[in-house]
Amino acid sequence: MPVPILLVTGFLGAGKTTVVNHLLARAEGRRIAAVVNDFGAINIDAELIAGASDGVVSLANGCICCSLEGDLLRTLSTLLRRDPKPEYIVIETSGVADPADIVRNLMDPVILREARLETVLCVMDATAPPAALEDALHRSQLRVADIVALSKLDLADAGAGTRMRAAIRALRVPAVVVDAQHGEIPATLLFPAEIDRPAAPRDVGSRRPAEERFETLSWTSDKPISLPRLQQAINRLAPKLARAKGLFETIEQPGRPMVFQFAGGRATLAPGDAPAAGAARTRIVFIAELGVLSKGELDGIMEACVAGG
User: Which domains are delineated in the chain?
Assistant: First the structure.
């Protein structure tokens, strides 16, 4: 019987990783394999981690997590030959990816014999203005969805969910729209029990030329940084950023690594793990639209965060 696949899509910072974390942490006996862009994006509680080998992190609850490096179909083939084989596969796409091409690949007859695309979940930030749906990438992500999950409702005003639902309906999106408080979506909705049936055909439209719209800029330092100066730097950079995330140590709290996240105009901090041997003490990745932010401008702003800068 083919292994069902859940494809998780959504724009940068929408909350896809929170949803995947929730599924893995509350697997309830299901053997789930998660394919993500990088392990650093997955924040599984330490007690769930069992070990790592061959590019795969094993979780104590029977789930596994692997990094998507290179060809997706090759990664799937590796997972499907594990013993025991996963019962479900979750694929988290990049926030800047049009999922239509991934759906086309997963509908390949060779893949369908072993793994079937069961559900496409689009995670939508409820705090975003409805006008955000005018963006072509947002629409592409919604167009292929079976379920749209409204995230960050706890951060939104009382009417945000209603407004976003109305905007989605206006686009005639056939997907079911559900609330995802803190990333929680019932697993029975994402992994239906009835799976012994042919895969339904999916119309994803004609193939569109790939559009290079975003670029990634990195900044590193071997010194701790000033938290107040970082706040000032992010305030300056925020109008140009689509997303940012990183790990650093502050002058104010030496020896306590922090995880930094910026999405939807909001920055958050959380305790982090010590950097690996040989890694820079501060590592932050910034994502912006092409040409909006230069490396020189970024370096100049961020260098002011370093002690003595």
Answer: 3-190 (3.40.50.300), 214-303 (3.30.1220.10)
